[in-house]
Amino acid sequence: MDHLQPRAVLFDYFGTLTTAVQRGPDHRRMAVDLGVDPDEWIAALDRTFYRRATGAMGEPLEVLSDLARTLGGNPTFRTVYSVYARRVATVGADGPLRPGAVEVLTALRARRLRTAVVSDCWYELPRLLPWLPVHPLLDTKVFSVELGRRKPDPAMYLTACAALDVSPEECLYVGDGGSTELTGAAALGMATLRLAAPDLRGHLTFGRDVTWEGIEIGSLPEILDVLTRRLEPAF
């Protein structure tokens, strides 16, 4: 991207539009309901995240049941369905919207910039997002579980670009750096910003981006400051 303003801003969701993700106690209660050890359940969730997030393990109800049985549980369908339903609100509570997210998205749209969310996620986020105030402020949403790919696969970013009718070089990508997302975006020619808010030191993340080097911001509103100063060629 040259020094001109971008036409679109793409956002990671968890840890970027939300505060740092930290698993709440309901995950452990769900493990007990499924008849499995909570520590083993959480470890299994971590171990299988990317396969779940690309749909590679199958339908969510089946996955939850299979994981529980692998760990020694024998849950009924009613219990599995209860966990399946509860996870939507629980995952939302693990990472509530970041203060300023609505205001920043509103300001970007006032500048006639298109917006998108590009997220590695399981089934919960597509069900949760329509109920949140950021939903109508996002022009398109790309979910790994629906696309069958995950960041930094180019398809994640290019799908958003196609929906927004922009080229990668016309985009700014903002993320906390999980899933090697910033390196993936930069490889396509996108300008990138890493959100390095103080709360992210305790953020649950996978595939931390350790090779990317670039500009960091400490809060979402700083995006507006960067755009006001105009993007530098070194971006």
TrEMBL record:
NCBIfam families: HAD-SF-IA-v1, HAD-SF-IA-v3
A UniProt-annotated Pfam family: Hydrolase
Domain of life of the organism encoding this protein: Bacteria
Organism lineage string: Bacteria, Bacillati, Actinomycetota, Actinomycetes, Micromonosporales
Database matches in PANTHER family: HALOACID DEHALOGENASE-LIKE HYDROLASE (HAD) SUPERFAMILY PROTEIN, PTHR46649
Listed InterPro entries: HAD-like_sf, HAD-SF_hydro_IA, HAD_sf
Segments traversing the membrane: none
Organism: Virgisporangium aliadipatigenens
Annotated protein name in UniProt: Hydrolase of the HAD superfamily
